[in-house]
Amino acid sequence: MTRPIVQVLLQASVTLLLTALATAQQEVTAYTNAHILPGGKPTISNATMVVSGGKILALGGADVKVPDGAKVIDCKGMTITPGLIDASFQSSNNQQDLNEQSEEVTPHLRILDNIDPEDPLFRRARNNGVTAVHIMPGTRNVIGGLGCVIKTYGSDPKSMVIKADASMRIVMGAEPSNGNRAIRGGRVNSMYYRRPTSRMGVIWSVRRAFYDAKEALTKTQGAPGDAPPSPGTQIMMQVLQGKLTAVTTARSEQDLRTALRIAEEFGYETVIDEAQDAYMVADELAKKNAVVMLGAPSAETISGSAAQDGSAPRSGTVAVLASKGIRFVITTGTNPSALPLIREAMFAHRFGLGPQLALDAITIEPAKLLGLDDRIGSLATGKDADFVIWSHNPLDPAAVAVSVHINGMSVSQPR
Amino acid sequence: MNHSLLRIAIVCTTIAIPALGQDLVAIKAKTIHTITGPSIQDGVILLQNGRIKTIAKASDVEIPWSATVIDASDKIVMPTWVLAHSSGGMRGSNESMQNVPWLTVADAIDPASTYFEGMLRNGVGTVHVLPGNNTLLAGSGLVVRPFGRTVEDMTVAANTGMKMSLLARGGSRLQKIREMRRAIAEIREYLANFHREKAEFEKEQAAGAIPEDKKWEKEIDRKKQAAVDLIEKKLKGWLYVPSFAELDEALRMGKDLDLNFVLGANLDEAMPLLTKLKAAVVLDDALEYFETDPETRKEKQYCSAKMLADAGVPFALSLASSGPSSYPWWQFGTCVRNGISRQQALEALTMVPAKMLGLSDQIGSLEVGKLGNIQILTGDPLQATTWVDTVVLEGAVVYERSKDPRLKYLFEAAKKADEPKATSKKDEGK
Amino acid sequence: MQILMKRRTTGALLFTALCTAHLCPTQLSAQDVLVQASKIVVAYGEGSTAATVLTDSALLLRDGKIAFVGADIPAEARRAARVVDYGKATISPGFVLAATTLGRDADLAEGALAFTPDLRAAEAFDPWQKELAQLATAGVTSFGLAPSPRNVAGGIGALAKAGKKQGRIETAEAFVGFSLTRAARSQERMPTSLMGALEMLRDSFKTARVGVQVGPDLAVLRQVMSGQRRALIHADTFAELNGALDLAKNFNFAPVIIGARDADKVMAKLAERGVGVVLAPLNPKARIADLELPKKLAKAGVPFCFAGRPDQLRFSAALAVRYGLDRNVANAALTRTPANLIGALTTVGSLRQGCGADFVVFEGDLLDLGSRHVATWVDGENLHGESPAGAKTSQTTNSAGGR
């Protein structure tokens, strides 16, 4: 006799709960009186932004009306920017986790397999205003594998993913060959004996991989009965066909030139990552229309920041890239002493980059580079409600992210 | 070694300022931040023989025709920064022996070190150089200006105190505390023996056992003199306290000795103790740190400057020799974003350290009669985009951004991609 | 025997049959034993099922198995049997150690290759090894002899037991062991990373699924996908767990996770997909969140047990109870759940008729660390502690007693 009653009660409460959830998602919030830097566009003063269901409903000056029943948050004196995007974010400090080192060419391995949403690095990035990151495999392999773009908050990598196979990383320079040894007889008991030991060897590995992919491409067009190419070669084929973005990590002038040369040789386009010495090859970069991901522009020899892999980072680089019209984004990259992304942009600003360009280089520009500017990277009607409320102008050293929002939800920890 | 210590001590026991600059210098400024008084818009500062003669609104001053005029009428003018504790600019700042109170940094300072060049570039006009943090009783420090060809040229004040440190590298904290206690007890014992022998001598002389005309000839061992001065409170101690764990012992030591504390960042566990600090302290250059709760794994960020401000203790800031915390504006930004006022932040690199060094009548603010240590900034001292344009020390221009070879190298490199990758400072001269 | 011969081509079960016959001492001529105690737990319940408990009852052991329980014991058998009376003590099923290498890691991982799913742990079993002696002392009566976590696909694990003189293999092919933990990622050979390990497994499962003719290694993966063999996967961190669960979902099998340090981060998935967990022993110095993990697993309905050093099992269960775990679940985690997780529920983990005569005798409650461990029996033999002879007069009262 009691059971049906309990059931009815239970059902009622479940329905109530569901309605409550639905309203929470449909809840409309208006952020008013803010100084809004929308990304890619000029500043809007005294602006209002209306957010609902994880998306931006409306954005503008006095013409934007606050809908009836909306929760109003007064942001007087504060600045709102799009959530920052770090186009080269290292998800772990342990290189062993970031590369499958049994082979030097592993194009089909996914860094997405190695992501822990509760990694403190995500939390720190989030608390500093970073809402989306592009993560690539590490730099110990010549071709490391597939990178992904994820938001910095979630309980499961799948729910965080914006783009699962976003890029394939190629690494130039000494890093993939560091510590490797040539086989000189005796027992081969370490995989380090099998890897390239020189810059020449590294480049040779890249070339061979692309050569194999090119061969496979002609074959698939020819005989249909052949065995399918290896998963790695299939990824390389996608790069050659222009279906997948290649990202080449190159720091010194020499490596930058090599990166451009190999891309031309095999006819694919590549984004240049790290690019410390980009100022030396600015004309070539401009001619090739290459996009640059500049790693940690705060690093400069003046303050003793370590120059990596034979490069000579200089403060003037950002201004040189901007003046030559080279598209570039600012990242934290592989430099272990990189500052939070917003501070890297602040240093770029200090070194001569205009305030809007400095902010664009960590918002709309990386979104464009990753092909996601329809969803993230700027504040506009219909886009994801990923944004940051700052205490000051974000390029002020005193600025703190007061609250960070992903899909409209506040995800930052109170300080 | 003892000679040089002696020499500097003789030359510099009082502030001996050889006039660096011309007789008369006038600086026109858009804004003058005096630190101790209100800011002045469209002001003029007159310097005579290296000292400030007049500070006033431009309309109230007539600039003498003979004065050298520095036109900063679109810029910000303020006193140069004062560092109360630094171990930069030395060739080897840590003696590997633990108990070496007789050493002095005068023998280790390298006037050609890029450290001093960097300090000038950041607007620092006074640096208290002390031995590093690795040594128990490490030797005495020297207040210098980051400009000059010899240590003597650079010296502003000597006998400024003895560096002591409770930092345990590789050993245990308790061990280090025990070593410090023992070192101090040994000096006390030595001193007590010395006085007892002297008293016995005098007693025997009075009793006639020793001839009247014989004099007491024994002197304090030179290697022990500095430590004895420390015990007798004739010399200040600058005690490095690496973390909350050593603070209690440091406070205990402070009861018997004249100590200034240099605090490491990790202080949150000693917050109740901080209010017991009576005088100003110096903070390590690292101001913020994370602490992870071992149970919840939640990360919390702490700021040492904020903790001291909350405890009502005045503090001086330090600058690292490289990285972002080598910039004053970065340090101020860190303070302000943790809730410290602009003024308190600015004072932490001006008046507070000047007072700690006993030089508040000379430096730390722009006031009539003080030394003409002035920096000219392109903008607000708390903004990242601000650069130090000119530094004037005691009336003489010692740094100009437009002539800074290293900045030229970093910014104009792109024009000459084929130039050598590194230039040494010595080649460029000053 | 005929059936076994047929399967010889795929799994070489014949060897097991011979091996078992050889190792297991024949007990046909041995006398029946009647074991009496004031409390006999036939089986601990799982989830909402209550434990089956008899008071003032007895078990009749014949040929190393439980022949009859309580009131079912025929009067004839009672009269003929040798009586062992534990008086006021409690008899429970013996502890099952779900997965262990018994300190023989080197023999249970093929160093040259990381992918060896068709290797058989039973072949590396040393029936004379001295570690077996410690099992009975700790109350462990049977264990899953697992391949070492040093290989990504380690091989086929066996169900084994200690014996009076030597150990024996009960079931040679019980489950398949996989590993995604750091131990499996050697810097000396492939794979060196989690990405590589997952790709290796994904690729192999894919080939096993679509391939027409597959080798013995991939045949094992097919058996996992078809549900014939249980997969036990070592995984600790979130990324490892997530990778293991996704793999299992893609290839449609329900694995058992060994380790599962970050289980609370994937709790919903574990519960939803019917995944079991073998936890590492609890450490009293661990974070409270870790000590409460068993409670949380139980609440979410995820079956779990403990593995590790034999003497840590009972302590871990007691500690979990101290941190909020239901006693019933804790008791099951020592006996019935591990047997279930390694697919051996019909042979070990309870004292039902036909199961092995493996039991432990404690003075009081199992989870009360103050209660004395009186004896351990395996296959009807007393391997540890005392076996007090009882008088036959108690028979009548016993038959009156029941559930």
Task: Describe how the helices and strands are arranged.
The complex is a heterotrimer of chains A (415), B (430) and C (403).
Chain A: H1 2-26, E1 28-36, E2 44-52, E3 55-60, E4 71-74, E5 79-82, E6 84-89, H2 95-98, H3 120-127, E7 130-135, E8 143-151, H4 157-160, E9 161-171, H5 199-221, H6 231-240, E10 245-250, H7 253-266, E11 270-274, H8 282-288, E12 292-295, H9 317-323, E13 328-331, H10 341-350, H11 355-360, H12 364-369, E14 387-390, E15 401-406, E16 409-410
Helix pairs in contact in A: 5-6
Chain B: H1 2-12, E1 24-32, E2 40-48, E3 51-57, E4 68-79, E5 81-86, H2 114-121, E6 124-129, E7 137-140, E8 142-144, H3 151-154, E9 155-157, E10 162-165, H4 173-207, H5 222-231, E11 237-243, H6 244-256, E12 259-266, H7 271-274, E13 281-283, E14 288-292, E15 299-303, H8 304-311, E16 315-316, H9 328-337, H10 342-347, H11 351-356, E17 374-377, E18 388-393, E19 396-400, H12 405-411, H13 425-428
Parallel strand pairs in B: 1-4, 5-6, 10-11, 11-12, 12-13, 13-16
Antiparallel strand pairs in B: 1-2, 2-3, 4-17, 6-8, 7-10, 8-9, 14-15, 17-18, 18-19
Helix pairs in contact in B: 4-5
Chain C: H1 2-11, H2 13-23, E1 33-43, E2 52-62, E3 65-69, H3 75-80, E4 82-85, E5 90-93, E6 95-100, H4 131-137, E7 140-145, E8 153-161, E9 168-179, H5 194-210, H6 216-225, E10 230-235, H7 238-250, E11 256-259, H8 267-272, E12 276-279, H9 288-291, H10 293-300, E13 304-306, H11 313-322, H12 327-334, H13 336-341, E14 359-362, E15 373-378, E16 381-385, H14 395-400
Parallel strand pairs in C: 1-4, 1-5, 6-7, 9-10, 10-11, 11-12, 12-13
Antiparallel strand pairs in C: 1-2, 2-3, 5-14, 7-8, 8-9, 14-15, 15-16
Helix pairs in contact in C: 5-6, 5-7, 11-12
Briefly, what CATH class of the largest domain in chain C?
Alpha Beta
> In terms of per-residue confidence, which ranges of chain C show pLDDT below 50 for 5 or more consecutive residues?
1-29, 393-403
Global geometry of chain A: globular
How many structural units, i.e. domains of chain C? Answer: 2
CATH architecture of the largest domain in chain C: Alpha-Beta Barrel
Helix content of chain C: 25-40%
Distance between the termini of chain C: 39 Å
Beta-strand content bin of chain A: 15-25%
From the coordinates shown, what is the CATH architecture of chain A?
A: Alpha-Beta Barrel
* Largest protein interface, residues of each chain: A-B, 40 and 32 residues
Please name the CATH topology of the largest domain in chain C. Answer: TIM Barrel
Major sheet of chain A: size, sense and barrel closure?
8 strands, mixed
Quickly count the helices of chain A. Answer: 12
Helix content of chain A: 25-40%
